[in-house]
Design a protein that fits this description.
Number of domains: 2
Number of helices: 6
Structural class: alpha+beta
Radius of gyration: 18 Å
Strand content: 25-35%
Order of helices and strands: HHEEEEHEHEEEEHEH
CATH architecture of the largest domain: Roll
CATH superfamily of the largest domain: ArcTGT, C2 domain
Strand order of the largest sheet: 6-10-9-8-5-7
CATH topology of the largest domain: Nuclear Transport Factor 2, Chain: A
Number of strands: 10
Helix content: 25-40%
Distance between the termini: 57 Å
Length: 175
């Protein structure tokens, strides 16, 4: 008989296999993950590894939203269908700060990507620069020259969290 924790681990791994491709569940969620359950709904909400958030299970559609640490784990699986795209070098700093990926900056993308999927954004050197949700299909990202291809949720560079008014009061002019 499986313990409750083993059953939950098996469940999130199978969901990851479904969402990101066969065999990705074990790479994304190793044995030492910590699964947090929502107090209200009693359903899986967050998955951590060594205190670092890997993924959030979205209650709206039942799929995962990746964190940067989760994206790193997923890239270890390195299957051909990992939902990722490569961008131009000149756009990478903008995206590292959390800016959205515009279609004109996409250089390489898996054509199997559908709108609404979780996407890992990569630099030309295959470094992770951000994670987000696709707005266009893979084919559209390749052919379009305008529009947002990926809404970036998290870039690798932390944004300045200072509010304009606070920075001005401290003497920094809208730092």
């Amino acid at each position: 008989m499986h313990s409750n924790r083993n059953r939950e681990l098996l469940r999130i791994r199978k969901l990851a296999d479904f969402q990101f491709g066969r065999g990705t569940g074990e790479s994304l969620f190793p044995e030492n993950v910590e699964i947090t359950i929502s107090r209200k709904t009693k359903k899986i909400r967050y998955i951590y590894q060594n205190g670092t958030l890997l993924a959030t299970l979205r209650p709206t559609n039942g799929f995962f939203s990746l964190s940067l640490a989760g994206a790193r784990n997923l890239m270890k699986a390195s299957g051909p269908n990992i939902p990722s795209l490569e961008i131009r070098e000149e756009a990478s700093n903008f995206i590292r700060r959390g800016g959205d990926v515009f279609a004109k900056h996409v250089t390489s993308v898996n054509e199997e990507i559908r709108p609404g999927e979780e996407i890992i954004v990569l630099s030309p050197l295959c470094e992770i620069v951000g994670v987000g949700r696709s707005m266009l299909s893979g084919c559209e990202m390749k052919s379009f020259r305008r529009g947002i291809a990926v809404k970036v949720r998290k870039g690798t560079i932390e944004k300045n969290k200072c509010k304009k008014k606070q920075c001005h009061i401290r003497g920094n002019k809208y730092a």
